[in-house]
Amino acid sequence: GVQDPHHEKIITVTTNGSIHSPKFPHTYPRNTVLVWRLVALDENVWIQLTFDERFGLEDPEDDICKYDFVEVEEPSDGTVLGRWCGSSTVPSRQISKGNQIRIRFVSDEYFPSEPGFCIHYTVLMPHHTEAPSPSLLPPSALPLDVLNNAVAGFSTVEDLIRYLEPERWQLDLEDLYRPTWQLLGKAYIHGRKSRVVDLNLLKEEARLYSCTPRNFSVSLREELKRTDTIFWPLCLLVKRCGGNCACCQQSCNECQCVPTKVTKKYHEVLQLKPRIGVRGLHKSLTDVPLEHHEECDCVCKRNTEG
């Protein structure tokens, strides 16, 4: 979180204003740590932060802002509202829970970027907007099916971990991606791709839309029959046989598409499991095995029954 009182600058907020990275909108300096604590004189107001559209810091690594970043913290409980870097998206509007909010800017010794950032702040009366209603229960205390539905709504691991552990999400992310002695999991072992020469384009097009392996999305909890665990992503793509058998060469009334070659492939995902006897969730990266259909064929339907 934002904890660096030696560099903290207290700004009394009575009207609109802004703070920005040094030299904004030009390249900011290296090796910089700046902390601002905005304090409104009226204890019954909130502070709203709006980021300038001109936003650009050093890019993240593996979607994690490790090097140059700007971070916003709620001083009342230490909750980190967000950490941002890169230049692909402008951070969303932030609203304090009380009359204070803290902002930290960090740059390392490499790759400074431009234009940096500029944050406009304004005093907000509570009745001017609706505060986000916090959940009555922490995520780890929710029933597993309810938590599974909540987890499904997140689009990045960073947002998911921030939701699960608002006070220590950066540490959890770093622990999650910290290399271990087993550097290469089974998910990194890929089979060879075969190349098929197009001898006849029309025939090839028909084949592609006939009985062939194609992408299907599967629910990991259902596929692995693991209702005691939550996986993220919730679904993954696998190759499964699909398509019709209009050109079936078998002498039978009805053909159906079945797999003739099945392989097991491992996929690295985030696993969330309730801790036994204590509150909280155990988070780990794990390899899950999923069946992929490599080859398919049309066979008489009666041959597959029984």
Shape assignment: elongated
CATH class label of the largest domain: Mainly Beta
* Total number of distinct structural domains: 2
Beta-strand content estimate:
35-45%
| CATH-scheme architecture of the largest domain | Ribbon
Q: How is the main sheet built? A: 5 strands, mixed
| SS content category | mainly beta
Specify Rg, calculated over alpha carbons.
Answer: 26 Å
- Secondary structure: number of strands: 14
Strands ordered across the widest β-sheet: 1-3-8-5-6
Tally of separate helices: 5
Task: Determine the CATH superfamily of the largest domain.
Answer: Cystine-knot cytokines
CATH topology of the largest domain: Cystine Knot Cytokines, subunit B
Order of helices and strands: EEEEEEEEEHHHHEHEEEE
How far is the N terminus from the C terminus? 61 Å
Helix content: 10-25%
Q: Report the average pLDDT across residues.
A: 81
Poorly predicted ranges:
1-5, 128-135, 181-185, 187-200
Topology summary:
Layout: E1 8-13, E2 17-20, E3 32-40, E4 46-51, E5 69-74, E6 79-84, E7 94-95, E8 100-107, E9 118-124, H1 144-151, H2 157-164, H3 169-177, H4 201-208, E10 212-219, H5 220-223, E11 230-232, E12 235-242, E13 255-274, E14 281-300
Brief account:
Residues 192-303 form the Platelet-derived growth factor (PDGF) family profile domain. Helix content is 12%, strand content 37%. It has 306 residues and is mainly β.
Explain how this protein is built.
By secondary structure, the protein is mainly beta. The protein has 2 domains: 5-134, Sandwich (Jelly Rolls); 157-304, Cystine Knot Cytokines, subunit B. Helix content is 12%, strand content 37%. It contains 5 helices and 14 strands. It has helices spanning 144-151, 157-164, 169-177, 201-208, 220-223; strands at residues 8-13, 17-20, 32-40, 46-51, 69-74, 79-84, 94-95, 100-107, 118-124, 212-219, 230-232, 235-242, 255-274, 281-300. The strands form 4 sheets. Strands 1-3-8-5-6 form a 5-stranded mixed beta sheet, with no helix packed on it. Helix 2 crosses helix 3. The protein is elongated and about 85 Å long. The termini are far apart. InterPro entries: CUB_dom, Cystine-knot_cytokine, PDGF/VEGF_dom, Sperma_CUB_dom_sf. Belongs to the PDGF/VEGF growth factor family. Residues 7-124 form the CUB domain. It comes from Cardinalis cardinalis (Northern cardinal). It is found in: Secreted.
